[in-house]
Amino acid sequence: MPSRPIHQVIADRTFVCVPIDMPVRAVTQLMQDYRQSAALVTEHGVLTGIFTERDATFRVLASGLDADTTPVGEVLTHNPQTITDDRPFGHALHMMYEGGFRHVPVVSADGRPLGLIASSDALDLDALQFGEELIRREEIAVIL
């Protein structure tokens, strides 16, 4: 699992990507619609930052900002650590562990967003492997 390239982990997966001037409420509504815990924020198509549920809670809600008028660019996390899609998934997990964060934007060589890796992806892959193992065991039980 950790040696799988990131492009396999994010293949055919949607992610939320928004312009820097979009209001926070619109961003969080997209996050809700797509069941995502973070959005990648761009300026002229290049990644500028990441906006997470935590940013919405602490930088907007707890600060008393108006989500309808506050642009996401004022409350995002600037210059997040990123990874390219040819790297192994385990490298992204290590980055998250070392940095104490739960999301890593996946970008092209020129900084354009390609996807998003979340710490929960490790659980998704483990659950998939667990399911496959259960099927194998059931098949063996039928044979015996």
The CATH superfamily is known as CBS-domain
> What is the terminal separation in angstroms?
30 Å
Biggest sheet, spatial arrangement of strands: 1-2-3-4
The outline comes out as elongated
Number of domains: 1
Q: Mind explaining what this structure looks like?
A:
The chain is of the alpha+beta class and 144 residues long. It has one domain: CBS-domain, CATH 3.10.580.10. It has five helices and six strands; from the N terminus they run αβαββαβαββα. It has a four-stranded mixed beta sheet with strand order 1-2-3-4. A two-stranded antiparallel ribbon has the order 5-6. A hairpin with a 2-residue loop joins strand 2 and strand 3. The protein is elongated and about 65 Å long. The two termini are 30 Å apart. The model has no long low-confidence stretch (mean pLDDT 88).
